[in-house]
What does this fold into?
Amino acid sequence: MTDAELEVKASGTLEGGHSGRPEVVTVSVDGVERKVASGTYIVSVFKQLVGVDSSRELDEVVHGDFTPLDDNASITIEKHEKFVSHVRTGSSS
It folds into this structure.
């Protein structure tokens, strides 16, 4: 995806408005660096943008701790965030 395509796609997925263009930053998803526009995303939209299948869970790695992200929650991307996706875990009754 070109930078121009990324900016168009990201601008349609960001919450709220920006005064000017969002900065393109690098994040790591499953060990692969991805370029995305900084800003606030709904997690399910962010997953789609960075190529994570909707059936997988996404965790943010902060200081070595894995924080699960709800698909309906918002996440703010600033720079250098790290994420790991994995098969959803659940319990059976």
